[in-house]
């Protein structure tokens, strides 16, 4: 290690620690407001359209429709839009919506992609406010009474909700649930406090239709249209709020491989969006948004570099140990017998790492506690964090490589 | 919900305090490491004990000196071995390069003391008929000697098994110490031959397995408990 590396290490540590300390302080200072309930006091409740684009959602979309049927809001229409599915989605939708005239089914044979389908939906939607929803997600019945009051603010363009995982069963699903609880729920709430929400999640977000029309709808060339549109909303200096009290439950892809494909799309899309809107970075014109996004991605990039270095160091260490044990006929017992714990052998870098991990764990614990998770889930969260952290870095590396190679990212 | 500017400032102050406490703690640890090395170095650098034993041997005969020496043998051997291990470990843990000098100086001192102790041990082994095997290990940095690390692993394992029955002295030829170089020349050891291990005056260059070295140690010292 040389001096330059030490400086780099301390700089990354400082930036990351400042970020986490700031988030912890914001959470602590706003903890009573996190689940704020706004009064639904419209004299004339606004009309809401819900667009559900569907591509090969057989077996899942019936549950989405069932959750829509339970919604307690009178002025509603549901637009189920088949985007050229090759499976039995079309039949399942027809069967599920039978007898409920709030539903309209647009059965398109041609697959145009999610963004284009959403834009088509916005064209035919009658509502003043339009909610978009994934076909594998379920919302709670009183969601609109919770989110609509945010639109009393005339500059409000979109409202996001807490995105949670529906019935996580496998260990991996439970680990990935953390990403939703922290990343797509708590963080969005925190970011909304300084108007820097950078995504309107696909599982459920609600928009003021006129604003979306004004900015030209969703970008059909972007693989993460829900992220890209948030940047354009911010560019116009409109607002995006988060209502943590309202929840949408999404189904995670069943296999680990599919989760990897999904994350690769998300992160590659994030790079694509960042590149498209690079003029917003560190630009005071866009308030704290440009600064926070730049800060966020700088940390991600530095984190990946540090992760790769740690991985290299870790493997060198493992290699050295393997060599040692190979030369000594894998005599673990003798080695363990003579093992001596020496506190002084831990350098400052070890403390740097330990402190960073502790802070992130604290943030995670705080997040899980405040999002009212059960104790057992909190325990798993703490245990699952190292794995999630490891996977998170790996996904970023895979995505960066894919973008650098100009590889076309598949939807699924 | 709005955030006050003071939250940003407080977060910054907390981070600065954390960084400072980390730096202070690092300095305390560095000093503790330094003190530990210096303490250990003091023990092995005390020439007076060796001189006393040599004088005892001259004046009162070997028997008197041997009794006294045997009581010290284990302690010295252990201290030397521990310090050798810790010098490298602590040098890695102390990442500031301005402190590298301290470890370099102490490594030199350590190597010289090892030599002194080894020579003394050899004399006492003959005079007092002590059952011990003496190994000298000549090495260089991994860049110049790719098998030296592997050889040191093997010797570490032998030391762990044999404890004070085998005394291992590791000489770093990178330090360019005249006395160590003389010793290497005495055994006809050239840099390109490294790693080299001298087992009771028999030189073996190139990497040698644990089994080979154990066999040689036991061949030259059949009375060792470690060989049974």
Defining key terms:
A: 412 residues; alpha/beta; Spore Coat Polysaccharide Biosynthesis Protein SpsA, Chain A; 2 domains; eight-stranded mixed beta sheet; B: 228 residues; alpha+beta; Glutaredoxin; four-stranded mixed beta sheet; 7 helices
Structure notes:
The complex is a heterodimer of chains A (412) and B (228). Chain A is an alpha/beta fold and 412 residues long. Chain A folds into 2 domains: 140 residues, no CATH class; 220 residues, Spore Coat Polysaccharide Biosynthesis Protein SpsA, Chain A, CATH 3.90.550. Chain A is built from 13 helices and 8 strands. Chain A is globular. The model of chain A has no long low-confidence stretch (mean pLDDT 86). By secondary structure, chain B is α+β, with helices and mostly antiparallel strands. Chain B folds into 2 domains: 130 residues; 97 residues, Glutaredoxin, CATH 3.40.30.10. In chain B, strand 1, helix 5 and strand 2 form a beta-alpha-beta unit. At the A-B interface, helix 1, helix 10, helix 11 and helix 12 of A face helix 1, helix 3 and helix 5 of B.
């Amino acid at each position: 290690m040389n001096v330059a590396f030490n400086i780099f290490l301390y700089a990354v540590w400082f930036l990351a620690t400042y970020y986490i300390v700031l988030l912890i302080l914001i959470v602590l200072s706003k903890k009573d407001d996190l689940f704020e309930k706004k009064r639904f006091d419209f004299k004339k409740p606004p009309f809401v359209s819900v667009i559900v684009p569907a591509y090969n959602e057989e077996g899942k979309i019936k549950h989405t429709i069932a959750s829509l049927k339970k919604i307690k809001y009178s002025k509603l229409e549901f637009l189920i839009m088949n985007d050229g599915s090759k499976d039995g989605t079309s039949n399942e939708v027809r069967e599920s919506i039978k007898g409920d005239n709030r539903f309209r089914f647009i059965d398109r044979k041609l697959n145009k992609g999610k963004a284009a389908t959403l834009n088509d939906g916005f064209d035919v939607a009658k509502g003043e406010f339009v909610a978009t929803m994934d076909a594998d997600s379920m919302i709670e019945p009183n969601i609109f009474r919770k989110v609509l009051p945010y639109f009393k603010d005339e500059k409000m363009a979109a409202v996001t909700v807490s995105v949670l995982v529906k019935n996580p069963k496998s260990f991996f699903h439970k680990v990935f649930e953390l990403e939703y609880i922290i990343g797509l729920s708590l963080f969005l709430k925190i970011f909304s406090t300084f108007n820097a929400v950078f995504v309107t999640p696909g599982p459920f977000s609600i928009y003021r239709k006129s604003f979306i029309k004004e900015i030209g709808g969703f970008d059909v060339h972007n693989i993460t249209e829900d992220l890209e549109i948030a940047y354009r909303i911010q560019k116009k200096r409109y607002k995006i709020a988060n209502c943590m009290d309202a929840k949408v439950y999404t189904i995670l892809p069943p296999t680990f491989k599919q989760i990897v494909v999904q994350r690769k799309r998300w992160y590659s899309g994030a790079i694509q969006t960042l590149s498209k809107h690079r003029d917003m970075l560190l630009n005071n014109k866009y308030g704290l948004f440009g600064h926070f996004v730049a800060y966020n991605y700088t940390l991600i990039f530095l984190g990946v570099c540090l992760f790769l270095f740690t991985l290299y160091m870790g493997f060198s260490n493992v290699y050295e140990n393997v060599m040692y044990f190979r030369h000594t006929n894998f005599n673990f017992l003798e080695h363990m017998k003579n093992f001596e714990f020496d506190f002084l052998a831990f350098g400052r870098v070890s403390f740097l790492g330990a402190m960073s991990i502790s802070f992130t764990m604290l943030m995670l614990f705080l997040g899980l506690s405040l999002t009212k998770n059960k104790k057992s889930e909190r325990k798993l969260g703490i245990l699952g964090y190292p794995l999630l952290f490891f996977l998170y870095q790996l996904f970023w590396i895979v995505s960066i490589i894919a973008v650098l190679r100009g590889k076309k990212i598949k939807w699924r | 919900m709005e955030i006050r500017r003071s939250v940003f400032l407080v977060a910054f102050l907390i981070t600065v305090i954390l960084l400072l406490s980390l730096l202070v703690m690092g300095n305390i640890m560095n000093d503790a490491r330094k003190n530990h090395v210096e303490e250990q170095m003091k023990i092995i650098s005390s020439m007076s004990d060796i001189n006393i034993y040599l004088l005892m041997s001259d004046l009162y005969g070997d028997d008197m000196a041997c009794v006294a020496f045997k009581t010290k043998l284990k302690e010295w051997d252990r201290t030397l071995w521990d310090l050798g291990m810790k010098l490298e470990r602590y040098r890695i843990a102390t990442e500031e390069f301005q402190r590298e000098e301290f470890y370099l100086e102490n490594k030199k001192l350590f190597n010289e003391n090892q030599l002194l102790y080894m020579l003394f041990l050899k004399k006492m082994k003959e005079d007092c008929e002590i059952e011990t095997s003496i190994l000298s290990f000549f090495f260089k940095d991994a860049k110049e000697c790719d098998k030296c690390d592997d050889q040191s692993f093997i010797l570490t394992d032998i030391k762990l098994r044999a404890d004070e029955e085998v005394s291992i002295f590791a000489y770093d030829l990178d330090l360019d110490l005249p006395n160590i170089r003389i010793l290497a020349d005495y055994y006809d050891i050239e840099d390109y031959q490294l790693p080299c291990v001298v087992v009771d005056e028999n030189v073996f260059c190139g990497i040698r397995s644990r089994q080979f070295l154990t066999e040689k140690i036991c061949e030259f010292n059949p009375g060792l408990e470690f060989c049974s």
